[in-house]
């Protein structure tokens, strides 16, 4: 996507067009927010496929492999899709943190909250449709949209008050560094030094937020990418392991099976069956 922001609406006719087109699992270089008023969403994300009834909110972090199929239910389909570059709204609470949790889809009730979201989407769309849209206005409306969504997430008690966890600037900075270096053979000390802190303190922060050590989080990120490569490329197991810093195929296979519960080959076969 070349634009910094884009918004469009999916209706029954658009749903039918999408269902008739080639729609393979993919990733993109922007954030995507789908707000479903009516219909259903068949969403493959976090290596699982789910069918969600409207009203719902679905958020796709950039880089995540996913496939979204908007479906007609009871003759209706009405969904907003908002796409934006990460830099467009830097303060968004949806961060790289989401890469580690299968909380992409949230089912909501048809209530006043969802009506507010729909009104905000309409306002954003109206501004976006102007000949010379004011991005500052869109940014403020999008920020308000996120505030309402985050409030609703807190009411649903998702992720044990995830919002407090997300606000850890140190943790977010660690995740940003991890995105830059996870394919390299970097240990806990490397990340701690970059963050001007001790390895012990960085481990304490990560344990508090994810109940995982820094090493476990690094391994999780590597293996998430391994799953992506197994799904989207024809590279063999040894090539994928080497690309992610595993010098031996057997060590990579062992680490993958310990985390995923199956070997890389078994995972690839499973995904092919799921998406066929």
TrEMBL record:
This protein's record includes keyword NAD: no
PROSITE patterns reported in the protein's UniProt record: HTH_ARAC_FAMILY_1 (PS00041), HTH_ARAC_FAMILY_2 (PS01124)
Keyword Phosphoprotein found: no
Domain (HTH araC/xylS-type): residue spans on this chain: 172-270
Listed Pfam families: HTH_18
Keywords on record: DNA-binding, Transcription, Transcription regulation
Protein name: Helix-turn-helix transcriptional regulator
Taxonomic lineage: Bacteria, Pseudomonadati, Bacteroidota, Flavobacteriia, Flavobacteriales
């Amino acid at each position: 996507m070349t634009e910094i922001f884009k918004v469009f609406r999916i209706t029954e006719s658009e749903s039918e067009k999408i269902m008739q087109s080639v729609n393979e699992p993919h990733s993109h270089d922007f954030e995507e927010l789908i707000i479903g008023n009516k219909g259903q969403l068949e969403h493959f994300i976090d290596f699982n496929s789910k069918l969600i009834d409207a009203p719902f909110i679905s958020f796709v972090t950039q880089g995540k492999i996913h496939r979204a199929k908007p479906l007609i239910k009871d003759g209706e389909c009405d969904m907003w899709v908002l796409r934006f570059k990460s830099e467009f709204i830097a303060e968004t609470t949806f961060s790289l943190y989401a890469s580690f949790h299968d909380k992409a889809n949230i089912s909501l009730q048809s209530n006043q909250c969802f009506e507010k979201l729909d009104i905000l989407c309409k306002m954003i769309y109206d501004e976006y449709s102007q000949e010379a849209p004011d991005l500052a206005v869109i940014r403020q409306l999008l920020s308000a949209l996120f505030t309402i969504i985050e409030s609703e997430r807190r009411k649903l008690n998702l992720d044990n008050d995830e919002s407090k966890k997300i606000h850890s600037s140190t943790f977010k900075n660690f995740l940003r560094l991890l995105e830059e270096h996870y394919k390299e053979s970097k240990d806990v000390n490397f990340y701690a030094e970059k963050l001007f802190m001790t390895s012990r303190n960085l481990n304490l922060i990560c344990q508090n937020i994810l109940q995982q050590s820094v090493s476990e989080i690094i391994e999780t990120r590597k293996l998430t990418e391994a799953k992506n490569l197994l799904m989207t490329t024809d590279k063999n197991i040894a090539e994928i392991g080497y690309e992610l810093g595993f010098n031996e195929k057997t060590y990579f296979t062992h680490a993958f099976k310990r985390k995923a519960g199956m070997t890389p080959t078994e995972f690839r076969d499973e995904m092919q069956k799921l998406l066929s």
